[in-house]
Amino acid sequence: MKFLLFTFVGVVHLFSLNSGKAIYKNDFSRRTFQEIKEEIARYKDVAKAIINLAVYGKAQNRSYERLALLVDTVGPRPSGSKSLEKAIQIMYRNLQEDGLENVHLEPVKIPHWERGEESAVMLEPRVHKMAILGLGSSIGTPPEGITAEVLVVTSFEELQRRAPEARGKIVVYNQPYINYSKTVQYRVQGAVEAAKVGALASLIRSVASFSIYSPHTGIQEYQDGVPKIPTACITVEDAEMISRMASRGNRIVIQLKMGAKNYPDADSFNTVAEIIGSKYPEQVVLVSGHLDSWDVGQGAMDDGGGAFISWEALSLIKDLGLRPKRTLRLVLWTAEEQGGIGGFQYYQLHKVNISNYSLVMESDEGTFLPSGLQFTGSEKARAIMKEVMRLLEPVNVTQVFRTGEGTDINFWIQAGVPVHLLQLHEAIDYLTIADMAHAL
């Protein structure tokens, strides 16, 4: 997380990277890389002005203060909740008062899940009350709960080998932590795989490299044709203890109670604001974060920080009186935690104009001290991005990492539209600098 402020994918239609032939009416493709490099370098003073405003000027700490006010006022913002809709309305007013353009709300239908009361108690070989967090979209247990013997496994492969032992039991996954992207599959798919072999419920070791007896939550996914069973995360400490008990041959019995409920989809909104481009207003550079959160935290890091630094990027540009060539569009997504629901519906609505999207950016991996950007695109585009990042040498934020991605923007990546290497620097000449500077 420490290296990333924004991940993004550039999407457009200006240049064929395979043939080298321009396919856009503006003949930018005839320029050499050296000419582009020289043009980027001419933004040095603009970069310095943005950095000074964000780091030393009146905008210092502004995004932090804005974020603190929202989370203190609203608190957790789970999908389908009144608090999420309150936050959206607050942000709608905030963006208008900030003087941004074309501020509006785009309707979205989103899931509504509530965890209710939940508990897990080990009854054998000793009585032990366990900390748990139900996983998003999980069904609940019967009112009396589920009381069953436990089967401990460390992988899906082990579960398959021991499938005959799983029927009628609660499967406990004590998978080793490798990294988030690999290990999270147990949270997402654990219930389905356990149900396939006849388990009554599943408990997943929290997907974390470190624990202070702190269970983890997140979305999980059921599969058509597979029975739905209750599922929750337990702490790393309890997963390890249960695994040790099992290795000694102890019979382990757990009583699980979960009051989780799924309700009909609720009405919500993606929140949008812009700075209209001066030369190509129909072409869009999108910067984003999500407003929703889980119910057991304030959502300050995931993803209040990403949403507010996205807003701050536009604020810095507006405050300096800068007018980029292309339209800068801020989108604050809704229901990202449920699997990118707001991002998907935005893509479905706007993909007809996909050729007008120059760059799509998202911040949702933590707002730490930045050292660069993740980027998905061609090697030619990457070379231009490296030149853009040189403008941030005064604050030592210059690296260009690979594999830019994000739940809400992956739909654009999957569309398979390549980055346009020549439009890239013009699209982000102000925005990239603003993104980085105000996070320092």
How would you sum up this structure, described in words?
- With 440 residues, the chain is of the alpha/beta class.
- 33% of the residues lie in helices and 25% in strands.
- It has helices at residues 33-41, 44-55, 62-74, 82-97, 156-161, 163-166, 180-183, 185-196, 236-247, 300-319, 341-350, 379-389, 410-414, 424-427, 431-437, and strands at residues 4-9, 101-114, 118-124, 128-130, 132-134, 146-153, 170-173, 201-205, 231-234, 253-258, 261-275, 280-290, 326-333, 357-362, 372-376, 399-402.
- The strands form 2 sheets. It has an 8-stranded mixed sheet. The chain has an 8-stranded mixed sheet with strand order 4-3-10-6-7-8-9-5, with helices on both faces.
- Strand 12 (280-290), helix 10 and strand 13 (326-333) form a beta-alpha-beta unit.
- Helix 3 packs across helix 10 (300-319) and helix 10 (300-319) crosses helix 15.
- The longest helix is centred in the last third of the chain and has 20 residues, at 300-319.
